[in-house]
Amino acid sequence: MNIILLGPPGAGKGTQARILTETRGLVQLSTGDMLREAQASGTEMGKRVAEVMAKGELVTDEIVIGLIREKLAQGGQGFIFDGFPRTLAQADALGRLLDELGQGIDAAIELRVNDEVLVDRIVGRAEQARAAGQPVRADDNAESLRTRLMAYYKQTSPLIGYYHAKGLLKAVDGLAEIDAVAAEIAALLD
Ligand SMILES: Nc1ncnc2c1ncn2[C@@H]1O[C@H](COP(=O)(O)OP(=O)(O)O)[C@@H](O)[C@H]1O
């Protein structure tokens, strides 16, 4: 089973993706995590994307599609795509890559939330990390957050119509408690 999680930054994609890895044995593919790893390991690509990410803009399709292609080439099946695709070009590329492997997408789950909650969640996440002496993401500040939200509405939200047209879209209430959201997703997938 291959599942896509859609929703703006702070909607809870990462949290629900982790739950799905535990409950269904799916492998989480988070392009955000892959890009942060590349940054931390100081690769050429990591250095190039650091600035773009800190601003809250999207990294080029070429780079993220390349990262996903590499992961899929390593084999296995049953993926949960978290933060990918984020543009129509990425969605088309994912469809083709899975097609080549004789696989498909089973569902695109949209986590529905409103912007005020997102800002509170992300600012809260940064404050918690700071208080615990943990590193704070360079893009968890008010200005980058505005850019991230804008990128979502402009570039990623068209994917809702894209997957709806394919009959794959399912929406859940992302404002509910974590366990309730997980239960709603589980019910949709069964
Ligand atoms: N599929 C993608 N396409 C382009 N850029 C991406 C993609 N995934 C992640 N990024 C980059 O990484 C940043 C962080 O993404 P992510 O960890 O998914 O966090 P969030 O969903 O909270 O914004 C994005 O703002 C963007 O710069």
UniProtKB/TrEMBL annotation:
Q: Which residues bind ATP?
A: G10, A11, G12, K13, G14, T15, R125, A176
Which pathway does the database say it acts in? Purine metabolism; AMP biosynthesis via salvage pathway; AMP from ADP: step 1/1
User: Which cellular components does GO assign to this protein?
Assistant: cytoplasm
Q: How does it assemble?
A: Monomer.
What is the designated name of this protein? Adenylate kinase
Record the organism: Roseicyclus persicicus
A GO biological process of this protein is:
AMP salvage
Which amino acids does the record list as binding AMP? T31, R36, E57, L58, V59, G83, F84, P85, R86, Q90, R137, R148
